[in-house]
Amino acid sequence: MNERRYEIDWLRVILIFSVFFFHIGMFFNGWGWHVKNNIRVEGLNLPMAFLHSWRMPMLYFISGVGTYFALGKKGTWKYLVERHKRLFIPLVFGILILVAPQVYLERINQYNSYFDFYPHFFEGTYPTGNFSWHHLWFIVYLLIFSIIALPIFLFMRSKYSAKIFLFLEKILSIKGGFGFLFIPILISQLVLLPFFPYETHALYNDWAFFTYNFIYFIYGFILLSNKKLVSSIFKQRHINMVLGIIFSLSMFIGTSMFSTESAREIFWNLNSLMMSWFLPLSFLGYAQKYLNFDNKLRKHANEAIYPIYLLHQPVILIIGYQLMNWDMNIGLKSIILIVLSLTGIFSLYMLIRKLNILRFIFGMHLIKTMEQKPELKLEIKKAA
After folding, report:
1. pLDDT, tens digit (0-9, with 9 covering 90-100), for 44-80
2. I want to staple 291 with a disulfide (CB 3.0 to 4.6 A). Which of 7, 137, 311, 344 is the partner?
3. 320 with 340: CB under 8 angstroms?
4. Please, which pLDDT band fits residue 363 given cuts at 50, 70 and 90?
5. Where does residue 185 fall: left (phi above 0), alpha (psi -120 to 50 degrees), or beta otherwise?
6. Structural domain boundaries of the chain?
């Protein structure tokens, strides 16, 4: 499949904005975070846990699709160079410039100023030390996925993968057939979760979560690269939605039936895994019908979403730090935080998009000047 999938662009935009609002929620909910409001809202914990269960796997699924188009007809070297520009350079810049202020806000009482703190940023690794990649863990994992999955991707693009696609086409044409693809996800978690039970984003001790998202990344590349498989996702959107809802309700209602904490945790995790597979699949199916269209907003939003992701958390934290001790209604404070954060993010983005050096640092395509567009020069010459 070579044509652009507009619904994938729209879903990516929606998911990144869901990350923004998720981190707004992190400022207020009952979990630990880098900067917290003076009053916590424990009622946010459960809905945010539900959102987090399927949002990140789906984002990696979408990233697998994007990698399929990024690879295109490029050779291996060109692909790796493109991934380096798109992921590694923004990652290094982000750690040095965007993450350091976030760590400083957590340790602000230990230093006289930010300039006093910055030389200490490289001392030790977070959380005991200062050096961290914070919200950029997503890019770290995506960069690693893009490299280690390359042999799989090259094989799936070769003629030798024909039998695999034929097998998948037959299985996924059966109602409920997507449950077959859930088996590797389930096995990976049964094997790894006992040893790595916590989602840390630290890579070295996060292998259950790492493997879980890696499988979604591979699936995104494979399933959205074949028209018949894309068609199966569309045709089975209703049954995938029903299954997603059933497992979601089971998470919230059925968990309370168990008397021990360990049993409740196992039941929640199992239903969460199944919900996180079928619900995003249904969204992908419905998106084919309702979001497969193009307009100027899609083009601009698709370009803006990456720098917005890079910027959103430091902006939220910096503004949140100023607001956290204000005694005011939670609803009003959340609106103020949202409005000020979006204003700050979009103001920075409007500057970034105008300068090629900043576009390069933030992983965006460069603006071509007239000297780089011979066809434009020719049109101007003809018009003259």
Report:
1. 999 999 999 999 999 999 999 988 888 877 788 899 9
2. 7
3. no
4. very high
5. alpha
6. 6-383
